[in-house]
Design a protein that fits this description.
The structure holds 2 protein chains of 2 kinds. Chain A is mainly beta. Helix content of chain A is 0%, strand content 54%. In chain A, a hairpin with a 2-residue loop joins strand 6 (54-58) and strand 7 (61-66). Classes of the chains: A mainly beta, B mainly beta.
């Protein structure tokens, strides 16, 4: 059974701060990792994907992957109130036909 | 920008009735998915579909559910004999490929199903 775990939150950070979101996964063979943002009542929206160990930056977002520790994280710099949402970690394994989602971490950025 | 479109956005149905949720995946995508999200819970995989057949399904996707690609563009989820616990947001998604690096799935806006 493939599992993806996240702290449910809520994680509260002040505006302008760095928000750090974490995710662990159980399938050591996993190769593709994704962060989605989901506003209440809306569909998941892709923020970033990462496939190799290390950091990947895209604007205010940085994804970090450590396959040895089976850990992936998302950093949001200069957090804005509009970043307040639930952040979903998703993992896709080689040969797998689906993406497994974590339960999501609710982020609240306080003005 | 290409997108996955879903209809209806919201459907209310009586318990025991059948519903069909419709999706138009992104045009060059080959893999199609249905996910479900019960209010306040996580996104759950239901089924994936490729080359006109189911490629993988979860335990949730039992005989009550079926999928079909009736023509070259639509992808449907049929739920027979609906139950109260089927009330959820149903997301259709599609991807160019699956399993390999670079594969990404894109979600539609969802169909909110309420069973009363």
């Amino acid at each position: 059974q493939k599992e993806v775990e996240q702290n449910s939150g809520p994680l509260s950070v002040p505006e302008g701060a760095i928000a750090s979101l974490n995710c662990t996964y159980s399938d050591r063979g996993s190769q593709s990792f994704f962060w989605y943002r989901q506003y209440s009542g809306k569909s998941p929206e892709l923020i970033m994907s990462i496939y190799s160990n290390g950091d990947k930056e895209d604007g205010r977002f940085t994804a970090q992957l450590n396959k040895a520790s089976q850990y992936v994280s998302l950093l949001i710099r200069d957090s804005q109130p509009s970043d307040s949402a639930t952040y979903l970690c998703a993992v896709n394994s080689p040969g797998g036909q689906n993406f497994v989602f974590g339960p999501g971490t609710r982020l609240s950025v306080l003005p | 920008e290409p997108e996955v479109t879903q209809t209806p956005s919201h459907q209310v149905t009586q318990m025991g009735q059948e519903v069909i949720l419709r999706c138009v995946p992104i045009s060059n995508h080959l893999y199609f998915y249905w996910y479900r999200q019960i209010l306040g819970q996580k996104v759950e995989f239901l089924v994936s579909f490729y080359n006109n057949e189911i490629s993988e399904k979860s335990e949730i996707f039992d005989d009550q559910f079926s999928v079909e690609r009736p023509d070259g563009s639509n992808f449907t989820l049929k739920i027979r004999s609906t139950k109260l616990e089927d009330s959820a947001m149903y997301f259709c998604a599609s991807s160019e490929s699956t399993g390999g690096l670079g594969n990404t799935i894109y979600f539609g806006e969802g169909s909110w199903l309420t069973v009363v």
